[in-house]
Fold this protein.
Amino acid sequence: MDIQELLKSNSKQLLKEYNENMDHVLDLQTTLIRDILPSVVDEFELGPDATEWAEEWLNDTASIFRIARRNKFTRSFALESIRKNLVWRLQNLWPTNAGFVSPAAVHCLPEHVRDPFGRPILIVEVVPVNESPEVVKPYIIQAFELLRLHLKSLSGAGAPEEEPVLQYIILLDLAKLSIQSLNIDVMTWTIREVIPRFPGMLAGVFMTNYSWAHSGAWSVVKRILPKTALARVFFPTQEDLLTVMTPAALPKDYGGILPFLTDLGDPLQSGSIQTFPSIAGVTEDGPSSSTSQPTSGYIPSISPTSMLNPFYGYPAASTRGYPQLHHGRRRKRDLARTLVWLFWLRWRTHIAIGVVLTALTLAVNFGLRRGLPRLPRIFLGGRASLLSALRTPSGRQG
């Protein structure tokens, strides 16, 4: 079965399961909101805002469906899994950041651009990240939550009779990836800890700009991915990509007819996705167990040249993945400093060689200038010695 047929078959099967199990999912949601949510509220002593935020997720029918599907629609397993997921969300996503900005390396094509089966398209550029795992992890969690909310907004924007939007298609651009820049620990953590909290959101991953140089990195990744995920990873040629996605759904960067990626609008960056207000509603006086202390990640600072920085070129600081300008505004001197640093990174080898050659040239010239007055004495001394040596034998013979 070719890629297009496989994606089509998977799409039909997913929508069929969604429609067939809708009554089951709605019944789960009723039980969750009526029985499970109150117990979690009591356990964590949640305030009204945190309770409302938790209920928003439980009312996300697509998310509950995806978790139930992962548990084969077994009611007891699904309820247990959803409750654990809710606790994890309180620990890692509350209080929320309504102004979270998607990483610059993640691009979502405009909402009218879809694959042939109606799924939105993400283009993710895999670039080196210099920040520590403690900085990157909260950002990854926030990014997945933004993608969930985006899918929810797409389903809510359509007519009631339209099919829901349940998954993304991802183009993973490996042009800038090297085995040296691959952070295995963060990647493993994302696959094992984060993606299972947002199951079933990826219909397929297309590896673009893949070459033999990436084979080492892929050999590491495929050992971590489960078999179900491996079945959704594809390595298409340029021709395959155009056949599956069609030129009308691809930017010119990838052989399509859409404008270049930098000229396309991005719904993840526009702020059009409705998120819950950022209000700290979790009290600190809850039980002492590890699951009863909701915490949120803290990012003290982000490098001006980091892929996580939406204000590229300017220093930023961030709390729980929400970046803000470090000084509250874009300062010209900050940008100038970044440009000088990038210029140095790009040309430092040439500059260093030029400095060394210049220093050597100056040293030689300086030495020659100091040595010129002594040259006649040296030559005269050498000439006198030579004449003396020539005269000595003849004197002895006489």
